[in-house]
Amino acid sequence: MRFVLDGDQRLFADSLHKLLERSDTPGAVRAWAAGDHAPGRRLWKALAEAGVFALAVPEEHDGAGVLPVELVTALHELGRHAVPGPVVETVAATTLLAAVGGDTAAEWLPRVAAGEALVSVAHPYALDADVADLVLVVQDGHVHVAEPGGTPRTSLDPARRLFEATPVRVLGPVPENGLDLGVLACAAQQIGVGRRLLEVSVEYAKARQQFGRPIGEFQAVKHHLADALVELEYARPLVHAAALSYGSHDFARDVSAAKVAASEASYRTAKTALQVHGAIAYTDEYDPSLWIRKARALHTAWGSPSVHRARLLAAL
Amino acid sequence: MDLEFPPAQQAFRAEVSEWLRANVPAEPLPSLETREGFAAHRAWERRLGEARLSAITWPEQYGGRDASPLDWLVFEEEYYAAGAPGRVSQNGVNLLAPTLLKHGTPEQLARVLPSMASGEVIWAQAWSEPGAGSDLAALRATATRVDGGWRLNGQKTWSSRAAFADRGFGLFRSDPESRRHKGLTYLMFPLDAEGVTVRPIGRLDGKPAFAELFLDDVFVPDADVIGEPGGGWRVAMSTAGNERGLTLRSPGRYTAAADRLLELWRRRADPSDTALRDRVADAWIKARAYRLKGFETISRTDDIGAEASLNKVFWSEFDIELHETALDLLDTDGELDSEWLEGYVFALAGPIYAGTNEIQRDVIAERVLGLPRGSR
């Protein structure tokens, strides 16, 4: 029993944090939203070199084996820095591609591990289907390949470029709970989003002066921020526990529990961040908005809290 | 990172589970907030003590088992899963004992702990005063130096179960010139001593769960001072940390309650009522989150310090949510006497005692998040 990240895992998280900190991720997010994918692609390349995408790819396809704890550790940092692109979708696709097997897996999984392939999975909308190298659709119990592109749909989060995908070719049956690694990745990303919003809100509350003192001195502000920390701190262990149950029959149940808690904690923190910052965070030009709208979008992406609550109870 | 129980804990779990199966009373004991119930719960403490299960984390010489925090979490899971009685000795075991183990003399440990483990002596806390609640440092009850000891004077209140308990512990102002946190002394005193008047106070549902204490020249020998005279605040805060951490409300209590809530939902709820369904799911998720947080806490090698306040806010508010959900599932029977209702009334006090949740949120904001101190 040792339910904390080990030294190597903490170092890995820290190295990703430092890498992303110096990469101007807000700039990459804004460019991505405007249709310029070059800075985002460079980020993906750097993350692949750091080993992030290999964490979801089996060893026989040039991956590191599926390492769920390391994967959620990485996704937490990616959420914290709002890395653009179909990160969660690419993780979800690894399970589907590995299950399909054969030439398809051999063709795509090594490219995913190397950070060369962005893969989208329509759930139901395909994120970044215009730029993805492969788009998968899960429909009627089967994995299909979709045509690139599709009809665009506008998300609250401009960096989430969604498309309606049309399946063109069946690859094979969907494995049981075949999207759950993606759901778990989403939950980890959400905790990272919440963590960043809390960090910037605390810094803002220390610096912003009203009535001649930092607003962080006021109890009403303190208590909002304390509540956000409580929610995030009790959601994170659920994400770690779900990662540990990968491959067991409890995985689906644990993933749903993690997704509910991560969604609620992240979204609540986003609302807190907006309230603590006041009008400035309601603007597009101020960076916290990048995380605030992402938190709302991810709240229902990969299954709303209500869907996962129902799934959890069905599994109990 | 793993969540595996080593063989030693698996064996201990089996032992505890077997003992509980053989010993837990078939019928729930009467409420421990009544005289009859208090006596029944005291007898239950004796049985636990005889099996060396009343305070497993203590050293063996005082009636414990030198058990690890993981053993304790395992014990608590089995204890509450078995539906075993509430712990009438919990103020002593969870608040006073950790303080004594940290600051007490060998003589105090040998005198106080074994009789606490056996349920022979039940302890009540005496922290609050009419003018000192959240602002505990405003306390005014005094300890005056006399030959061989101290004379206590003043009034304490909200003293849990003091109506039936044997002895009390709390802070007293021993330096009349001192202010705030200075000049306080941590003392133990008998509740049946000359000069002590105990007036039971009915709680929200009328049961006499706590009491106020009037102290009129109550003599306490030097042997009952814990730590240095005048250094009581520091001594007490080591207890407060314990109170806000895991021990006051073990994760096992919530996982067992969430499982029972799930049964109740299956039995009582209209499956199309998704609002109630979601609340039941949330209770299960939060119970699991608290359990996992417990494993995380004991896995850490650093001191959790002020983060203990996160636990206190979480368990106290979750306890109410869980019991509210049960009462709502019971529908029009929700107001009728039941274990759920008892649990609900008990839970309502959680955000108030052991440092109100407003104080805890201040602690989280200032000492965990690093926000500036301000006026309260």
In total, the number of strands of chain B is: 8
**β-sheet strand percentage of chain A:** 5-15%
The residue-averaged pLDDT of chain A reads 97
Model regions low in confidence, pLDDT < 50 over at least 5 residues of chain B: none
CATH class categorisation of the largest domain in chain A:
Mainly Alpha
Low-confidence stretches of chain A: none
What is the CATH level 1 assignment of the largest domain in chain B? Mainly Alpha
How many domain modules of chain B?
A: 3
Radius of gyration of chain A: 19 Å
- Please identify, by name, the CATH architecture of the largest domain in chain A: Orthogonal Bundle
Domain tally of chain A: 2
First-last Cα distance of chain B: 41 Å
**Order of neighbouring strands in the sheet with most strands of chain B:** 1-4-5-8
CATH superfamily of the largest domain in chain B: Butyryl-CoA Dehydrogenase, subunit A, domain 3
Structural notes for this entry:
Chain A is of the alpha+beta class and 316 residues long. Chain A folds into two domains: 7-173, Orthogonal Bundle (Butyryl-Coa Dehydrogenase, subunit A, domain 1), CATH 1.10.540.10; 180-315, Up-down Bundle (Butyryl-CoA Dehydrogenase, subunit A, domain 3), CATH 1.20.140.10. Helix content of chain A is 57%, strand content 11%. Chain A has eleven helices and nine strands. In chain A, helix 2 crosses helix 3 (38-49). Chain A is globular. Chain B is of the alpha+beta class. Chain B folds into three domains: 7-117, Acyl-CoA dehydrogenase/oxidase, N-terminal domain (Butyryl-Coa Dehydrogenase, subunit A, domain 1, Orthogonal Bundle), CATH 1.10.540; 123-231, Butyryl-CoA Dehydrogenase, subunit A, domain 2 (Beta Barrel); 245-368, Butyryl-CoA Dehydrogenase, subunit A, domain 3 (Up-down Bundle), CATH 1.20.140.10. Chain B is built from eleven helices and eight strands. Chain B has helices spanning 7-23, 35-50, 69-81, 90-103, 106-117, 232-244, 251-268, 274-299, 308-329, 339-348, 357-368, and strands spanning 123-126, 142-146, 149-160, 167-173, 184-190, 196-201, 210-221, 225-226. In chain B, helix 9 packs antiparallel against helix 10. Chain B is globular, with a radius of gyration of 21 Å. The model of chain B has no long low-confidence stretch (mean pLDDT 94). At the A-B interface, helix 7, strand 9, helix 8, helix 9 and helix 11 of A face helix 8, helix 9 and helix 11 of B.
